[in-house]
Amino acid sequence: MTDNQYIFFIGGKDLEMETIKQLLSAHNQPYIDKNLGWGAKTSAYEAEISRAAADGKTPVVIELEQDCKLPENAINIDHHNQNAGRPASVLQICDLLGIEKTRDLQLIGANDAAYIPGMMEMGAAPEEIARVRRRDRMCQGITEEQEKEAERAISKKEEICGVTIVRMAHSKTATVADRLFEKDKQQNLLILSDDGEANYFGDGKLCKMLQGNVIGEQPAPWDANQTIPVYDNFGGWNGGAGLGDENGNAFWGGYPDHEKVLNYIVSYNREKQERTAAKINAAILAKNNRDR
């Protein structure tokens, strides 16, 4: 395959995406970047993608939610939502282009796919983790004002049934999640932002439940011959290495009614606490009976 058979289309900016751009430049691969944020969609590049295919190129869309028709030869690079479980996007790019997966690239991939626990599983030193997280926040364009707002919001945090609840003006969640992360403790963090976004970090089973099950399909707004899923709960996006695992760490985000999603998460955690307490009491009772 020739060096320039691909044309890459860049998704929302963070450390992984900036690293992908650097790899593409280093290997003389053409890309188009419109400096989009998280939640970027294919329609932002619809004309350019069509032109690339018409020119005989293979469009490669990177972490772009599909909301328009794509050419049949398009390649989708992603590891979120229905693509959860695939390698991190930066590692998929390495596979596509035959690039060596250095430790730094693997750390960046682990950070994006599984956050701090993913880097810990690699045996990353605390200073390595801190450096990657600092670089990630910088690449997301987080400002000093947003960092200060996170500190203010954290100072007002609440805790209900083990869920830490933080309400803040913006939705740059790394400013809060990084500060509240505790080693050897599962996350249980809900961030409610004034822009309408809600993000939960923690129990992987809950992250899957928040999005819900696919209960049907509806015609895609960009092409009646294509379909998009319909969910039975809040929809939105999710991912993380622990997705679906009650004891794993994952994430979910969306734009739900804040009070409804808060009540849902608190109720889930209350029931989880009650189940845990019942198991502990049953174990104590069984031990007492054995000791008689």
Structure described in brief:
With 292 residues, the chain is α/β, with parallel strands linked by helices. It is 42% helix and 21% strand.
Describe what this molecule looks like in 3D.
Helix 4 (103-121) crosses helix 5 (126-139). This protein has helices at residues 15-26, 46-54, 89-97, 103-121, 126-139, 144-155, 174-180, 204-211, 258-291, and strands at residues 6-9, 31-32, 58-62, 75-77, 158-160, 163-168, 188-193, 198-203, 214-220, 223-231, 237-239, 249-254. The termini are far apart. It is globular. With 292 residues, it is of the alpha/beta class. The chain is built from nine helices and twelve strands.
Low-pLDDT segments: none
Instruction: Report how far apart the termini are.
Output: 75 Å
Query: What percent of the residues sit in helical stretches (DSSP H or I)?
Result: 40-55%
Number of strands: 12
Largest beta-sheet characterization: 6 strands, mixed
